[in-house]
């Protein structure tokens, strides 16, 4: 079986193995193999979880370098009969040596592991990315992956990177898709796909495997990232190849290949959760005339049941990026997780949206974005102090296109990157703090301050005439209204 080892300049630590034994590790930023987490806090409380990914390698030792901490991980593969049997002679559809599999531990991903081995004769290492989906999705992943035929499970914590490098740039840009949607799912796909490409490159994989769903928009978001970051890698998409057409077919295939079927209560809703939001689709929501059921929501209480007393929060912002809560500086993921808790208990951030999918069809979804809604209101409000009228208008117009690019999976498109450079430059002075009142589903701004504020009380006051003279208004109005006056004169024959 494979084993993942971490090597630091001063010590060598055995992180995990593919056997039934679990190890704990306090540093969530490292690559790990089927690890047992010691506390909710280690996974950012209720906001932690996984997204599926995987690697496959039969090339012996490989080296993974952690960019921030300089820790090198070495994956060594035993030369047992199990590994050689998986790759010998290829499969029914061809031969691949190493595959990176997006893995969640559900029925579909469990079935795909033996399907890959059977059809492409490859080893499969399951890779799960944690972008804050919830701690329950971690439970038993190692056993599930191993039982499905995978040689290893690798989990990478991407929460800080996700918030810092994907969520906050969208927040700074003011990117909202179709007036409501704060792009929770759309922002998560590129960070997961990028990690997938990084791992594939590190292990020398010749294929990436994306199995999340047969929804085209999600496939597009993953594969456009693959194309942008490593066009030489192949993409294997079972949804477009296999004969499995439904849940019953998948269960039958699993039994045939001795894969334990995950025994879970099937939700009537299709959900996607990460640290930014939770989406709900399907069942009664498919009819846009139906009101969502009260018990469907998971991140927020019903505004009617929220506390009868409002709560005030102060958000500190530096150059368009949130940095603190009530004066306490927090990491990006910690700040968002804390605001999710606060906003959730006041019923903040619920939206019901009929959106236009990438392929043109309309779909209805309900989203919970408690912390994100608070942050969006804070950043937007601070801009009213720090940006002039023309700048706000141009920024808002570009924000629409920015949101469309992110929604369409074009995160690594040069256009989005160029627009992001503009957003970064234009918000250099968007620094200060905003105080908001949270009460029964509403977010109200009660105060804002900035050292770069363009608001001047001595100019705005009606009592002062030193800078703004009321007598100046007469000439301005005559000139400003000249086109309207000329048009009216023409109609009257004057």
Automatic annotation (TrEMBL):
Enzyme class, UniProt record, top EC level: ligase
Annotated keywords: Amino-acid biosynthesis, Arginine biosynthesis, ATP-binding, Ligase, Nucleotide-binding
SUPFAM superfamilies, A to Z: Adenine nucleotide alpha hydrolases-like, Argininosuccinate synthetase, C-terminal domain
Domain Arginosuccinate synthase-like N-terminal: 98-260
Pathway: Amino-acid biosynthesis; L-arginine biosynthesis; L-arginine from L-ornithine and carbamoyl phosphate: step 2/3
Residue intervals of the Arginosuccinate synthase C-terminal domain: 269-486
Entry-linked InterPro entries: Arginosuc_syn_C (IPR048268), Arginosuc_syn_N (IPR048267), Arginosuc_synth (IPR001518), Arginosuc_synth_CS (IPR018223), Arginosuc_synth_type_1_subfam (IPR023434), AS_cat/multimer_dom_body (IPR024074), Rossmann-like_a/b/a_fold (IPR014729)
EC number(s) reported in the record: 6.3.4.5
GO terms for biological process, alphabetical: argininosuccinate metabolic process; L-arginine biosynthetic process; urea cycle
Superkingdom classification of source: Eukaryota
GO cellular component: cytoplasm
GO molecular function ontology, one term from the record: ATP binding
One Pfam entry name: Arginosuc_syn_C
Oligomer status and interactors: Homotetramer.
Record HAMAP family: Arg_succ_synth_type1 (MF_00005)
PANTHER family: ARGININOSUCCINATE SYNTHASE
UniProt name for this protein: argininosuccinate synthase
Native source organism of the sequence: Hibiscus syriacus (Rose of Sharon)
């Amino acid at each position: 079986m494979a084993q993942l080892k971490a090597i630091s300049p001063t010590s060598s630590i055995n992180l995990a193995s593919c056997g039934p034994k679990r190890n704990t590790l306090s540093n969530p930023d490292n690559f790990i193999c089927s690890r047992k987490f010691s506390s909710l806090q280690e996974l950012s409380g209720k906001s932690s979880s996984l997204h599926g990914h995987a690697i496959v390698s039969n090339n012996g030792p490989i080296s993974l370098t952690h960019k921030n901490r300089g820790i090198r991980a070495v994956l060594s593969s035993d030369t047992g009969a199990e590994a050689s049997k998986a790759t010998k002679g290829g499969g029914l559809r061809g031969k691949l040596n190493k595959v990176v599999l997006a893995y969640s531990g559900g029925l579909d991903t469990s079935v795909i592991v033996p399907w890959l081995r059977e059809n492409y004769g490859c080893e499969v290492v399951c890779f799960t990315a944690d972008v804050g989906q919830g701690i329950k999705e971690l439970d038993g992943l190692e056993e599930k992956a191993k039982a499905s035929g995978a040689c290893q499970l690798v989990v990478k914590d991407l929460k800080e990177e996700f918030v810092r490098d994907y969520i906050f740039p969208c927040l700074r840009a003011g990117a909202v898709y179709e007036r409501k949607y704060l792009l929770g799912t759309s922002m998560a796909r590129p960070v997961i796909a990028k990690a997938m490409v990084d791992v594939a490159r590190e292990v020398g994989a010749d294929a990436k495997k994306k199995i999340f769903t047969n929804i085209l928009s999600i496939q597009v978001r993953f594969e456009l990232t693959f194309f942008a970051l490593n066009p030489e890698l192949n993409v294997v998409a079972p949804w477009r190849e296999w004969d499995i057409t439904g849940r019953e077919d998948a269960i039958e295939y699993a039994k045939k290949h001795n894969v334990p079927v995950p025994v879970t209560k099937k939700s009537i809703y299709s959900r996607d959760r990460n640290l930014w939001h939770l989406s709900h689709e399907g069942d009664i929501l498919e009819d846009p005339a139906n009101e969502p059921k009260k018990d469907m929501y998971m991140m927020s209480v019903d505004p009617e049941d929220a506390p009868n007393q409002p709560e005030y929060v102060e958000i500190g912002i530096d150059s368009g990026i949130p940095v603190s809560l009530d004066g306490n500086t927090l990491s990006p993921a910690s700040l968002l997780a804390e605001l999710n808790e606060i906003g959730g208990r006041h019923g903040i951030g619920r939206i019901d949206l009929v959106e236009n999918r990438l392929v043109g069809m309309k779909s209805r979804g309900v989203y919970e974005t408690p912390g994100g809604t608070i942050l969006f209101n804070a950043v937007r409000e601070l801009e009213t102090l720090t940006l002039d009228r023309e700048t706000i208008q141009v920024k808002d117009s570009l924000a629409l296109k920015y949101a469309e690019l992110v929604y369409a999976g074009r995160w690594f498109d040069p256009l989005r990157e160029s627009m992001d450079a503009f957003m970064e430059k234009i918000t250099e002075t968007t620094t200060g703090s905003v105080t908001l009142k949270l009460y029964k589903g509403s977010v109200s701004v009660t105060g804002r301050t900035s050292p770069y504020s363009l608001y001047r009380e001595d100019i705005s006051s009606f009592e002062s005439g030193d800078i703004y003279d009321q007598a100046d208004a007469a000439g301005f109005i005559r000139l400003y209204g000249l086109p309207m006056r000329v048009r009216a004169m023409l109609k009257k024959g004057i």
